[in-house]
């Protein structure tokens, strides 16, 4: 399926789409050194959130999709060298308001879960302003 949103995103920081289908997406992110929060190699949670958010946007896959809210849980830490995979599923397709469930895993371990409330606006949020 053709990607219709977030075309200019830096995929080295937010992940590489592996699969984008109607109402679902899978995005892969390699945790690299510029993402570390400290000398232990701990990955800053903002990068994991960014991965999950990007996966949610791709599950909706509309040019005007925006994030309205998110309820998230960080379950395990990630470190430099980890490969994370976000899987997103739109629970309310065909609506203007989309609730997207996202799970991020590192191998067999789930490291993050979230529900992302996404909206499809009539025009781009920056149009006219």
CATH architectural type = Roll
Overall pLDDT confidence: 96
Question: How large, in whole angstroms, is the Cα Rg?
Answer: 14 Å
Largest sheet: 6 strands, antiparallel
According to CATH, the fold-level topology is Thiol Ester Dehydrase, Chain A
What fraction of residues sit in β-strands?
A: 35-45%
Shape: globular
As a percent range, the share of helical residues equals: 10-25%
Structural category is alpha+beta
Strand order of the largest sheet: 1-2-4-5-6-3
Task: Count structural domains.
Answer: 1
Q: What is the H/E order?
A: HEEHEEEE
Explain what you see.
With 129 residues, this protein is an alpha+beta fold. The chain has one domain: Hotdog Thioesterase (Thiol Ester Dehydrase, Chain A). The chain is built from two helices and six strands; from the N terminus they run αββαββββ. The chain has helices at residues 11-14, 45-60; strands spanning 16-21, 24-30, 65-74, 83-90, 97-106, 109-120. A six-stranded antiparallel β-sheet has the order 1-2-4-5-6-3. A hairpin with a 2-residue loop joins β1 and β2 (24-30).
């Amino acid at each position: 399926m053709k990607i219709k949103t977030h075309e200019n995103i830096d995929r080295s920081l937010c992940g590489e789409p592996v699969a984008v289908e109607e109402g679902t997406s899978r995005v892969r992110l390699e945790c690299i050194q510029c993402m570390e929060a400290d000398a232990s190699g701990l990955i800053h949670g903002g990068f994991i959130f960014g991965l999950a958010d990007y996966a949610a946007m791709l599950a909706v896959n509309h040019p005007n999709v925006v994030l309205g809210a998110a309820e998230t849980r960080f379950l395990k830490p990630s470190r430099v060298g980890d490969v994370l995979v976000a899987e997103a599923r739109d629970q309310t397709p065909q609506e203007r308001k989309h609730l997207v469930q996202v799970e991020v895993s590192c191998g067999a371990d789930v490291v993050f879960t979230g529900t992302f409330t996404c909206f499809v606006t009539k025009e781009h949020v920056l149009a006219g302003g």
